[in-house]
Structure formats: C-alpha cells, structure tokens
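Example 3.2
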Amino acid sequence: MAVKIRLARGGSKKRPFYRIVVADGRMPRDGRFIEKIGTYSPMLPKDDENRVKIDLDRVKHWMDQGAQVTDRVSRFLEAAGVIDKKSRNNPKKGAPHKAAVERAEEKAAKAAEAAEAPAEEAAEA
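Structure, written as tokens:
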C-alpha cells in the first residue's frame, strides 16, 4: 500500500481549509484517510502561528513507515526543520515572456533616442 502524507481540502467555496492527512495513495483527495496529522489554513496571514499546524511526532512516525510526502507538505516540513531542503530548479519561471521583452527593448530604444537628442542640440549650439 502506497501511503502518502498530503492535503485534503475542506472549507467552502473560495474559503479553502486543508487537513494534512496520511492516506492511501489510491484514495481520492478528499476521501478516506488513515490519520489526520495537522491543518493548513491559507486564508490566515503568513506570520500567523495557526496557519500551519503539524504533529511532527506523527509525521516522523509515518515517514519511518515509508510514507511519501507531497510537494506542498514537504515545503511545510522543510520550514519546520523536519526534512532537508530540496533544491528546486525552474530557471524559466522568473524570465519575462516575449511581449515583455519587446516592451523593454522599445522602452530602452526610446530612452536612448531621448538621450541623444539633447546631446545633438548642445553640439549644434
């Protein structure tokens, strides 16, 4: 049985609330789970202590049993210091798209023309 530590969504529409659960990987996201080990409330401010609550002893127990952790839960555990931080590499994520690059080039060209115009007028005078 592939056991996963993952999020199960609760809460109403546009008001998300998640339970951090240990579940069989074959069960649906919000379906049957083995144990609830924490909560995550993304509507709370990032510095609020109640935003993420995890029973770290139970997490360690389930990880010793071979449970796999999903990406989002692994980020919570990295912040808590339970697991080592993974290196994530997505170099294209922060790069501007084609239209933004074109706008930047046009802006730079206009700035260069504006800088040349007063210099030419000063040289003629």
